[in-house]
Specification:
There is one protein chain. By secondary structure, the chain is an alpha/beta fold. 48% of the residues lie in helices and 10% in strands. It has 15 helices and nine strands. Strands 1-4-5-6-7-8-9 form a seven-stranded parallel sheet. A two-stranded antiparallel sheet has the order 2-3. Helix 7 runs parallel beside helix 10, helix 8 crosses helix 9 and helix 14 runs parallel beside helix 15. The longest helix is centred in the middle third of the chain and has 25 residues. The chain is globular. The two termini are 34 Å apart. Bound molecules: coproporphyrinogen III. It holds the Pfam family URO-D. Catalyzes the decarboxylation of four acetate groups of uroporphyrinogen-III to yield coproporphyrinogen-III. One of its GO terms (molecular function) is uroporphyrinogen decarboxylase activity.
Length: 359
Amino acid sequence: MNSEFPALKNDLLLRAARGEVTSRAPVWIMRQAGRYLPEFRKVRENHEFFEICRNPSLATEITVQPIQRYTGLIDASIIFSDILVIPQALGMEVLMNPGPHFPEPLVTPEDIKKLKQVVDVNVELKYVFEAITKTRLELNGEVPLIGFCGAPWTLFAYMIEGGGSKTFQKAKTWIFKYPEESKALLMRIANVCVDFLVGQVKAGAQMLQVFDSWAGELSPHDFQLFSFPTLRHISQEVRKHLIEEKITPVPMTLFAKGANHAIAFLAEQSGYNVLGLDWCVDPTEARRLVGTKVALQGNMDPNVLYAGKPAIESAVKRMCEGFRSAKGGWIANLGHGITPGVDPEDVRWFFECVHKYSA
Ligand code: CP3
């Protein structure tokens, strides 16, 4: 499979993910192809969000936008898509206006019947695989391509809340009132995640990231009960399936936002190579907690990007000193996705500062 693609010219990301201390930190940012880029907004003027996700040519065009703009400064691409393509593959309608909206969310466990019993990712999510293969060719080996999916708990929360939420009252009512039905649904989602991630590697993804954006909404006890088993299932099964199909497993990142109580445990038990961190944990402390068990990724507060070049420089310098204070792989990133309104030239400065201070 891999030999069909152009040779990789920049493997900093993959080396850091495997725990190597690299000559400088590889850097990319979550949501790097997004609304802060005028070239992204231009494409969005004429196309709906999910229309772009489903069109491999448009998805490829957008994925490479930041790579072209920041040539030589950015060390990874991430396929343009969304975590909510899995609920769509399960048969749910999802709109983006401007945030995610499910016209018919799951209300009671009875509604689970409405979901597709069997999801063939090669049919339902074929468009993502096509976009990945097309992007790999388009990238011409300049940087590795990351594939991704949402974590079961985060997807479950969207499917029940019907969109974003401040309290997660509905999703939490499910886990507390119907724990067994909830666990069964979470594992069903996890199995779709496994097939989807394996398919992305077959299509050309060179690394994988699982986004558990709402992990921090759960107590440590409930994270252990409702999220962690699915996260570990995904890392184990993806690796197992790839080996069975004689494909070399790729490094995997877990971004369990807000689950900083679990960092040491996740490093030991989750089966991921990299832990993504938000900004609420100190880099030196995170490194102390994980030792050299896993590589780390993160974690500047994305809002620093609104504060001008001197503020960005001092935050990046501090982040670099923290993550470089002890042995272990580190991938520089933000602590969450970049938001609209950031000046793309300030993003360039962020990359330049990482190059300078992580060397
Ligand atoms: O990182 C990348 O550049 C790759 C593409 C990517 C998108 N969404 C594109 C996107 C990735 C990796 C995601 C993941 C995603 N999607 C997450 C996990 C990461 C996180 O932010 O916590 C979540 C929770 C979603 C669900 C989602 N998609 C929300 C809540 C929203 C609306 C709010 C927002 O931040 O924009 C989206 C829309 C979305 N996904 C946009 C982009 C570029 C903007 C939508 C637009 O163009 O109108």
